[in-house]
Automatic annotation (TrEMBL):
<dbReference type="InterPro" id="IPR020841">
    <property type="entry name" value="PKS_Beta-ketoAc_synthase_dom"/>
</dbReference>
<dbReference type="InterPro" id="IPR014031">
    <property type="entry name" value="Ketoacyl_synth_C"/>
</dbReference>
<feature type="domain" description="Ketosynthase family 3 (KS3)">
    <location>
        <begin position="9"/>
        <end position="414"/>
    </location>
</feature>
<dbReference type="InterPro" id="IPR014030">
    <property type="entry name" value="Ketoacyl_synth_N"/>
</dbReference>
<protein>
    <submittedName>
        <fullName>3-oxoacyl-ACP synthase</fullName>
    </submittedName>
</protein>
<keyword id="KW-0808">Transferase</keyword>
<dbReference type="GO" id="GO:0004315">
    <property type="term" value="F:3-oxoacyl-[acyl-carrier-protein] synthase activity"/>
</dbReference>
<dbReference type="Pfam" id="PF02801">
    <property type="entry name" value="Ketoacyl-synt_C"/>
</dbReference>
<comment type="similarity">
    <text>Belongs to the thiolase-like superfamily. Beta-ketoacyl-ACP synthases family.</text>
</comment>
<dbReference type="InterPro" id="IPR016039">
    <property type="entry name" value="Thiolase-like"/>
</dbReference>
<dbReference type="Pfam" id="PF00109">
    <property type="entry name" value="ketoacyl-synt"/>
</dbReference>
<dbReference type="InterPro" id="IPR000794">
    <property type="entry name" value="Beta-ketoacyl_synthase"/>
</dbReference>
<dbReference type="GO" id="GO:0006633">
    <property type="term" value="P:fatty acid biosynthetic process"/>
</dbReference>
Length: 416
């Protein structure tokens, strides 16, 4: 089997996946939760205690950070860094990445985050704002946006490119795509790539609520995230991290790695239209999808299903449906949206959804969209509702669209 694609670039294998997400703390748990279309949104006591207008979110279920971190490390880092480190460790374990065979200078970390260490900055300002010299000594390292990526590089001794991407809700997808580019063009042999965010805080939740971006279903949180539904009223905030080990295909095969699939296409662009609203006709997002397909050397007919960004907001879902409709010339493949289960993990969402979309593509199963039965967009795209859809194992197109008009799309293909 060729180690290079039709354009002569190195193929990019996915050999490890690690997740810490509301849907579960392993890819297997998350896959089952997505197939069950089981919403994870629930009331968060601290939000109610602080009089935040929206009092629910999707949180990562409890796990044991002590299995990954020393007490000293745990004290020094923000929650987003903790989630990213733990997911990265799981990905490395899953890949069975042999330290003696990895060239540190040829191995990098590419991580996306939309919020970064802002939660630690918020907490520090609230607790110590009146007494600046009482600030914890680790305040700056905890709040630096690049801390998660740098901590991962330090943990594993990876000395190649270590880059942090902040493209709002597209950050995790951007990081995966840029990591794949670096491997394709010979800049890296291996990369730990993905996204992470932990935005369930007073200021961030209140800020989103003031924008009228969040669902207000405080009395029925499990029904709140409903992508493309006729009665959607905003997104639900979630937290989490997802990291993948990406390797040059020939090197992965040579070491006998188990290959989950590959990243075959990537594209990004910008609406250049509005800071929080997408271009209504979806034309720029559609161009991004077409570019990702072209990068993969595929036609729209080759795609088995689409993992939509699907935030559960009126404008974003409407624009994305129009974009998919245009990209596929009215012949939409099955479309799902995983945020019905996990809410919106901001910078972590694209990476988690890409990882699970690849799993779904390999299994030939497309999860139903949680909480969605009827949709005004049903005439434009083939939304999967009610029960999972069985499809042929085939490449999947995974979309992420962020504030600022930041669009990023990946094509992921099952191993063959």
């Amino acid at each position: 089997m060729s180690a290079r694609d039709a354009q002569g670039r190195f193929r990019v294998a996915v050999t490890g996946i690690g997740v810490k997400s509301p849907a579960g703390n392993t890819p297997e748990e998350a896959f089952r939760t997505f197939l069950a279309a089981m919403s994870t949104a629930a009331a968060v006591d601290r939000l109610a205690a602080e009089s935040v207008p929206v009092r629910f979110a999707c949180l990562v279920p409890p796990f044991e950070p002590e299995a990954y971190l020393t007490r000293r490390e745990a004290r020094q880092i923000d929650r987003v860094t903790m989630l990213a480190l733990c997911a990265a460790a799981d990905a490395v374990t899953d890949a069975r990445l042999p330290g003696d065979l990895v060239a540190p200078e040829r191995t990098g970390v590419q991580l996306g985050t939309g919020i970064g260490g802002l939660p630690s900055m918020e907490a520090t300002a609230l607790d110590h704002g009146g007494f600046p010299m009482g600030m914890p000594v680790h305040t700056v390292p905890r709040t630096m946006t690049n801390s998660p990526a740098c901590r991962i590089a330090m943990r594993f001794g990876f000395r190649g490119s270590c880059t942090t991407y902040a493209t709002a809700c597209a950050s995790g997808t951007t990081a995966l795509g840029e990591a794949a580019r670096k491997i394709r063009h010979g800049e890296l042999d291996v990369a730990l790539a993905g996204g992470a965010d932990a935005p369930v805080t007073t200021v961030i939740m209140s800020g989103f609520a003031r924008m009228r971006a969040l669902s207000l279903r405080n009395e029925e949180p499990r029904l709140a995230s409903r992508p493309f539904a006729a009665d959607r009223d905003g997104f639900v905030v979630g937290e989490g991290a997802a990291l993948m080990v990406l390797e040059r295909w020939d090197l992965a095969v040579a070491r006998g790695a188990s290959i989950h699939g590959e990243i075959t296409g990537y594209a990004d662009n910008c609406d250049a239209f509005h800071i929080v609203a997408p271009h209504r006709d979806g034309s720029v997002a559609a161009a991004c999808m077409r570019s990702a397909l072209a990068d993969a050397g595929l036609s729209p007919a080759d795609i088995g299903h689409v993992n939509a960004h699907g935030t559960s907001t009126l404008l974003n879902d409407r624009a994305e449906a129009a974009a998919i409709h245009h990209c596929f010339a009215g012949q939409s493949p099955p479309v799902t949206a995983l945020k019905g289960v996990t809410g919106h993990l901001i910078g972590g969402s694209g990476a988690l959804e890409a990882a699970l979309a690849l799993r779904c593509a390999a299994a030939g199963l497309v999860p139903a969209i949680a909480n969605t039965r009827t949709s005004p967009e049903a005439g434009l795209v083939d939304l999967v509702t009610g029960a999972p859809r069985t499809v042929r194992p085939a490449p999947v197109l995974s979309n992420s669209f962020g504030f600022g008009g930041q669009n990023a799309c990946l094509v992921l293909s099952p191993a063959h």
